[in-house]
Amino acid sequence: MNYKAYDKYKDSGIDWLGEIPEGWEVRRFGDFYKSRMGETILANQLLENGKVPVLSATEEDNIFGYLDTANVVLKEGDIVIPARGSSIGHVKLISFPCTSTQTTILCQSLNKSDPKYTKYHLLGLRNILFYFDRTAIPQVTVEQIKSNIFLIPPISEQKTIANFLDHKIKEIDDLIAKKEELLKLLAEQRTALITNAVTKGLNPNAKMKDVGIAWLGDIPEQSKVERLDHTAKIKTSNVDKKIQEDEALVKLCNYVDIYYNEKITSEINFMEASASFTEIEKFKLKKGDVVLTKDSESPSDIGIPALIEENIDSLVCGYHLAVLESIPNKTYGGYLYYAIKSRSSAVQFEVLANGVTRFGLSKDDMKSLLIVLPSIEDQKIIADFLDKKTSEIDQTTTKIKEAIERLKEYRTSLITNAVTGKINVLNFSGNL
To answer: CA angle 18-424-148, nearest 5°?
Structure first.
């Protein structure tokens, strides 16, 4: 970092903190904020309109209801700290009169510190200050919040640090936003590349024909439009995650393996389960098979495929999944994978998916899926082309994701070092 240290430091008296700038104090959070649990609210008390907005515990300034009255109405400059679950320590600085629920801790300012500095102090030391009880649902208590240390520079310095961090964090967040937008564009480019290759082929000069399907458009003259059950044998698995004493042990390829991996290899740490001899014979996975998700809580998670890239001993397909076994000499597994991965298949799955709280595809639904099928030789050429091109996009995507993580780490480090006095930002001017 291109930041100077303070001229003089003193011992903080806290091992993990070490020295702090001379003129700073180590106090307790309770000296500066009055803290209590949020409002206990029953569902029938929430109104569509009312005098007191009720904040969501997890989303910034998100109002999910109103109350006519509240025991505590927060004002601008007060703070809400989620007290349970994965959101612990994600601090909200209040900008309008409101309250929050019993899953949060409400911190009312005693007007002895700068609110923005307080927010950054809590965020910068989140992993230290919000050590939570290791219960079934992680949680912190009001007493823990009150007793947390609060590192206090002079008030004018608090404001300077907060303003500096506002400026620098915005710069970092703007960079992150640009990179995240680039990730979206790459994902769209990847999908378009796959869709175009499996529906239009690789020869831009090929003769095309109209097959009478509006959403598909023209396809190469030598290709056909086939139902999925004419290109592959479809098997829906019923192998669960249990281990039965009278069954053989197997490696189970389950839902998350397919959802998070486009290609299935022996490097994946498969869970152990058991299956009957009949189930093993029916659902054993082999190189070239395509496995896809057939049930989910969201229709967008239906029909996500993965390709079995190698033969793996004792690997069996788990439930909530379907296996597509290519018809020899007619369908190439690598091509079938990309055909299922294409936007043209996703659109069909979205229409076919049925359900209210959980969505699914029946075997008949999958049978009726239409895909463009060129010759077996062209299928292999297209699959090889897409392997190469998607790999190039994936490498770029990985580099961008790594850059985003580095920026996030830098942001956290910058906040922590500023609010602990490890860097002096009072007279800083320069770029990131």
So the answer is: 45
In angstroms, the CA 216 to CA 210 distance is 9
pLDDT, one tens digit per residue, over 343-402 is 999 889 888 877 655 678 889 989 999 999 999 999 999 999 999 999 999 999 999 999
Residue 413 in tokens: 């480090």
Q: Where are the domains of the chain?
A: 1-22+154-195+377-432, 25-152, 224-373
Whether 302 and 294 have beta carbons less than 8 Å apart is answered as yes
Strands in 228-380 per DSSP E:
232-236, 248-253, 263-264, 271-275, 290-293, 295-296, 305-308, 315-317, 321-326, 354-355, 359-360, 370-373
Q: What is the pLDDT of residues 168-189, one digit of tens each?
A: 999 999 999 999 999 999 999 9
Show Cβ contacts of residue 7 under 8 Å, excluding neighbours closer than 6 positions.
22
Nearest partner of 117 among 431, 415, 409, judged by Cα: 415
Tens of pLDDT along 82-134?
888 777 778 899 999 999 988 899 999 999 999 999 999 999 998 888 765 55
Q: What is the CATH number of domain 224-373?
A: 3.90.220.20
Confidence of residue 32 (pLDDT cuts 50, 70, 90): very high
Q: Which architecture characterizes domain 1-22+154-195+377-432 according to CATH?
A: Orthogonal Bundle (1.10)
Distance between CA atoms of 327 and 314, rounded to whole angstroms?
A: 22
| Within this chain, domains 1-22+154-195+377-432 and 25-152 share the same CATH topology | no
Q: Which H or E run includes 401?
A: helix 376-419
d(CA 36, CA 106): 5
CATH of domain 25-152: 3.90.220.20
